[in-house]
Batch of 4 targets.
Target 1
Amino acid sequence: MPEQNSTSAVPSPSGLRNRHIAMIALGGTIGAGLFVGSSAAIAATGPAILLGFLLVGLLIIMIMRMLGEMVVADPGRGSFVEYIRAAHGDRIGFTSGWLYWFFWVVVLGSEAIAGALLLQDWINAPAWVLAVGLVVAMKIVNFFAPRIFGECEFWLSSIKVFTIVAFVVLGILYVLHVFGPGVPVAQNVLHHGGIFPHGVIALLSIIPTILFTMMGSEIATVAAAESSEPGKNVARVTRSLGVRITLFYVAAVGLILMILPWTAIVPGKSPFVAAMVAMGIPGAAFIMRIAVLSAVLSCLNSSMYITSRILTELADQGDAPAFLTRASVNEAPRMAITVSSVAGMLVAFSSILAPQTIFAFLLSCSGGLILLIYCLIATSYIVVRNAARRIGTEKADFSLPFFPLCNYITIGGVVLVFLAMLANPSERMTALASLGTAVVCYGLATIFSRKSVTA
């Protein structure tokens, strides 16, 4: 491993603080996908969406636990990509790194356009101008020391978390008839086609969409490497993050389904606004617009951060151009940030110039990649823990129960979701495109590895 990776554990005044890590961990997974995108998932599955959130939450709990134990057992490697590389070799490391970077670049461009469309309510300017402005603004934020990124993410995430907590509290009071005219909970949940109005296959095939709204928890483990206590921060984050995320999502969406029948939820429009209007909350649309804008900016900020760090690590390993490396972890990787921001803007432009062709293709190619990445984390944990067992350190470093059954269940769940996507005509192209992208990336890894051997 390169020498600079080991310096991530050195305390630095420019590094991230414990409160930054905690809020990045919690707020990083609460995005516009929950505030707005969850409407499409609710419309596609009905009340069964709660089971979907529970299943995805369980997956995240398992993945974060596995990742946390690998990092604590062998700290200082860098992002989770380096643990995949250590377990499966350079070709899989190359593949997982570039797939993850590509996934977040598509997110970056998508969020830039989403933010631009939101800002058009206040600023009379073309969407592409506003999108470029947002990307440049986040690029400037990330150009400073990591602590500046952490401070911005802390406050942006605080707005999201406060909004969810306030909504849950008000929703509980409304359902309990503390205020308002009351609501027929059982009728709203059960009398509109039952729990599974569209069947189990519809639920399984929507899992990637649900995961897309809940993903991002692994960013905290990368950010922890730039804090003064990386080992302790990773352990703290991975122990409880998955449970907290699941409770947030299940509580919020569950209350929406109690307040309104799922058939009243309109895809593309915020179900939170609909529920708040039903409760009689004044200024619901404006409140949610602020929350969604903070979510978009937070996601942009995190996307810029994680893409630059992954790109830097790939450069450290010789899997990306050498000019993308950085001299010190205390400094921002400005070249990597610049490359990622340009790539994100190209994605944003494609959504304006060719939304039904190029942009739709990029979304399909990236749609299932996070499932493949999580599957690789699960298999890497098996390899790493078996290696620890051989040298006698397993009991000291690892505590995930029912090993390796949990890992195989996780992997089997990913396979089952892909099969469900292939069986669903509306999700089939996403599954095929994501698997094809992974195959192409692995092919490139094979070609480059052969060139490096013959050089």
Target 2
Amino acid sequence: MMGAKWGMVIYNCISAAEILLALVCISRVVYLEPGMSGRRNKILFAVAFLVPTLFVQICPGLSKDIFSAFPVCFFAVYMVIVRREKRIRGIFLTVPVLGFLMGIVSVFYAVPYTLTGKYPSEGGWLYAVDALFWIAVLIIYWKRDETVHLLRLDEPYRRLGKWERNFLHAAGVFLFVIGAMLMAVTQTGISGTAARVITGFGSLASVFLEMSVVILIWQGNQKDYYQYMTTIGEHYLQAELRHFRAYQERETRVRKMRHDMRNHLLCLRELAENGKTEQIKEYLGELSGALRETEQTVYSGNEIADAIINEKEVLARAGGVRISLEGRLPEEITIKATDLCTIFANALDNALEAVKDLEEKWIDIRIRQQGRMLFITFRNPTEEKEVVPPGSTRKEDPENHGFGILNMTYAAKKYQGSVQRRIETAKGTRVYSTEILLLLPEKAREA
């Protein structure tokens, strides 16, 4: 008996966790709400949920209604925690999100009742539904990369429009009402045939509405995804065009220097024959300056990165900005040229934009490798006090700016990486730091 009691206690805890997890998944998939970041935070939240859930069951005298309300209450707390803004408003999402869950669950009861006139038995039927849920969870976790790519849950460019959100609110509340009616239709005194008809139409309405919502979210995600990819392509082509123009200008200067070198040598020889040492020094200084404008001054170990860095270094030098580089990229790196271009070009463009009006004008690039992990850090002084969200910008033309971090994040995620940004204070100066983490294939390891 004791073993059966504890078995039921454990089953009830799992069922409560199932409800909470389902609510979280619906908020992520349907409402595109943010998820909880960090494994430590997730574990702490899970413990904070399971401990009181277990306590309510083993403590005698406590009502079961308290236990039933636990998943919904903790979901409201979860929404307050994960939201970056309008946290209190997130509590009110509990009703429509619960409505979407009730719309799904009610169908499992409504269909058998409509067909047979009887609700399924609590034990075996509930166990089967629970088993299906956890099998689906395991499959999604096993195929999590494909699932995330399919749903685009982690992309910050996707936003629900006002009409989309209002539609979801109305749909969720409607499903909440319909689900409650379907589960309680036999207790209203309606005759068996009428109850079965109402239940059948109610379940069909729930299924139709749920499918409409899924199609809405799917089409919206696909539309924004392709718009985003088009934007990435446009910005990459612009970066390539700027690089090609800078390369052409450098090559033109080299050809001019080569063409005029004979004349320069003749002038120097004539000055030397006349003993004009000071003029020779001045002339050589001018030639050295002209040569420095045509040479590559920064070496990262990778031709693509070198081309981008040195292109930006010419622009930086014209604006009085110093660019320094510490570390080298692996020689046999397998990161695509487009991704390297995206990371270095956008990071340096953002840094140059940040320091152009400051007294301190410097940009530090640090490259470190630890095993398969490659860290690329860009640091520059800044006047900003906080980091703006990805996709946002403080520039006057927000529709055509703010894509740099999004592009870098998209490129990093191809290599199971991430982009972390923060503002630090070093020696009385606020420093903006952008750190890119990339996981390299095995063959890219250092010897």
Target 3
Amino acid sequence: MLHVGEVKRLVLEKTGGKIARAVLGFGGFLGMGQDYYPIPWRRLSSNCGWTACPTPR
């Protein structure tokens, strides 16, 4: 599996309360210069530990 970033926040659906997206943090050093991208929850897997990994298409 490929490590793509750390999950920083979770975005919930307003009506259902299910997780809709995970906001991943990429790059940066000591908390500076990090970029954040929302990724659809269904596209991630936690099979490689506590980090988010993309699932095959």
Target 4
Amino acid sequence: MRAGAAAGAAIAAAPDAAFARIAVNSGDGGLPALARDMEGRLLLPDDHAYRYSARSNNARYDGVLPRAIALCASEGDIIQCLSWARDNREVFAVRSGGHSYAGYSTTPGLLIDVRALRRVSVNLDDQTLTVQGGATNQDVADVASAYPFAIPSGRCPTVGVTGLTLGGGWGFASTRSGLTCDRLLSTDLVLANLEPITASAESNADLFWAVRGSGGGNFGIHTSLTYRMVPVGNVTVFNIFWPAQKQVEMMLALQDLQIRNARDISTRSKVATLQAGPFPRRDQLAAQTLGVFYGEERAFRELIQPLFRMLEPARAYIKPMSYWEARDYLVTDDPQGFFDIRSSMIRERLAADALEVSLSWMSKWPGGAVRQANMGILFAIGGAVGDKRVDETAYVHRGCNFIFEMERAWSPLDPPHLVEQQARWLDDYFADMQRFVLPRSYVNFPDRGLKDWQHAYYGENLARLSGVKRRYDPENLFRFAQSIPLSPG
């Protein structure tokens, strides 16, 4: 997830590359003064920590190097950095996790890094959890795992909680407890006018509506977020692999299993190649499912038996655990390295003809050094996520059962001409699948090449989001290639 997202919150450079070059080459712009005024550190390219701090999760954007990196140690540092960027007309980005799949937490200007602000606290009296703007999923788990309470959050431990929340926040608890943003009670942020404010149902309610699903980087820099926690107990974890047979039948059955038990099961199901290489045959593509059942092992085994009778699994791991043990089992750091992602929303299910088309595209993979583990994934996004109305928060995809995600990953071993073939494969695959899916995409899986991205991410909530943008950022200080426009297109 952004930063999930996706993954982390991101504010990136303006789309005008010429302006970016002018800003970068316009002298020191008072950087020494900014460094003196900060409690944290300002890293320049000759600093020993610069290269490490500049890296993002997606290596394809490692060539975007900032003019300076501000390691913020306080809200005051954030205000100083925003003031400097505004006064110098400097492009900037904010990084809370660095997981923006589309590179929106990178910039050739000033990188405002808030990852040092990562304190997490729990208030047992009112069952709330408060995080600073740079906290990660792992930071939350390190503190909250001592309690029988949690917030629904993502799988990747290094993803920033801020970015995850602002884009909605998918995780294995979503079908049971809603999205991460659905548990948000309030957030503190610094606006474009340098004013720190609080957004909640009682204060700046229009902004509070907007930050729950609009994605990172649109309205300000978040310094604190407070959530209502939910009680957690024991669950059953499963990780099941079938032989490379009956792929369509298995994926249909897995979708039906999820839909019939929308709140009690949360799945990530897919068909994946068994090995790296070009043009995988049908007998090299196998169905898998990973997830959580909110109940006893015996009950889950009864639910899964029809699928086992349909095709005996090659490997089946099914085990009862505590909620926090399950969280540790399910963590993942993928994708990593070089990767590219597309996503679509599914109202009901992918039917047999859609699955056949998806499988045919998997067989057209041009090859490369990396095994393609995520060529077609169905993330369960129904159940409790649909309890809220489409217009109740900025997250517009209520009423959908699945996110369909496809991606490509490559290695430095892959030559440029092959990487280009992989890119065309992904573009064509995504385009061909559009006849089976909704024209909607998950903002925490951002795609720079997405056509009509405004409506894909925000649907009927776009106009209202633009109105909130005009009120809180009328000069469009917080802008990047896919930031919310002042006027809906």
